[in-house]
Amino acid sequence: MAYDRLQPSQPGGSTQQQNHEEHKARSNKRKIVILSVIAVTMIIVSAVCAGLVIGLRDGGADSIGTQVRRKPTQAISKTCSKTRFPTLCVNSLLEFPGSLTANEQDLVHISFNMTLQHFSKALYTTTSISNVQMDPRVRSAYDDCLELLEDSVDSLSRSLSSVIPSQEGGSTQDVMTWLSAALTYHDTCTEGFEGVSGTVRDQVTDKLKDLSELVSNCLSIFAASGGDDFAGVPIQNRRLLSSDDDLSGESIDEENFPKWLGRKERELLSTPASAIQADVIVSKDGKGTVKTISEAIKKAPEHSNRRFIIYVMAGR
Ligand SMILES: *[C@@H]1O[C@H](CO)[C@@H](O)[C@H](O)[C@H]1NC(C)=O
User: Fold this and answer.
1) Where is this region: Disordered (predicted)?
2) What share of the chain is helix, strand, coil (3-state, %, to 5)?
3) Would the CB of 79 count as within 6 Å of ligand 1?
């Protein structure tokens, strides 16, 4: 039958050849196994070496948020536990001079200073790519970003000088306003690059990495350090858009806005009401979302990082 020939155990010379081939295959297999073992060993050895190099490099430390290298002090742990990004908080504080001997009170201004240094560095490195060729849209987004970073550095410096214990600075409310401004500047910058792609955008957004998280942490640390003063809406030191002393003093700028008012708020206040997308509309006759202002305030989220807009419709 035809399939007899397919039987492998045909007597004769072919068996010997088969044995030989089997032997060859086995020794090949063994070679492959040995080679694989060597390869794996080398991979492990080089991984360990790379680990050592990275470990050594990290001794010099300039990146944040990677890993905890030193043990945080009790004050640092306690301070950072109040933040939304505790790991970033611990890591960034640990590598900042003076943090290991600081008490909780000192950590407030140390956090501000550390955040300011990160912003300054981002501003510096962002400025360094200004000679790169950019098309007009990217250039405009880039220029905006640079300007906003400068404003943030300014806001943070003011906040820092207000929280240094020995100095008489602005009010608590000022610090919150400045910090919030730094947070919105950052958002505005990232938004400017929306819809554009390319290396400039990637480079800029990379430099902005962690910045808004650091500001958010400052806000939490500062709020926690103020204790009960922060429960509820702050009333003292509240600034009105056009109180008498503002009008007489220098605090009004060319655009007739108080100087402390941020860029986004200026844009918002210059926009006609019909063009504003409000979060809540107050209208006594029930045409809005709610009927009273206090209901609207209750609807505003507690720790929002964007402006919550309440539109109060005209009425009696
Ligand atoms: C902020 O940190 C820098 C660098 O560590 C230090 O030289 C400077 O004195 C600090 N400034 C304040 C106000 O603490």
Assistant:
1) 1-25
2) 60, 5, 35
3) no
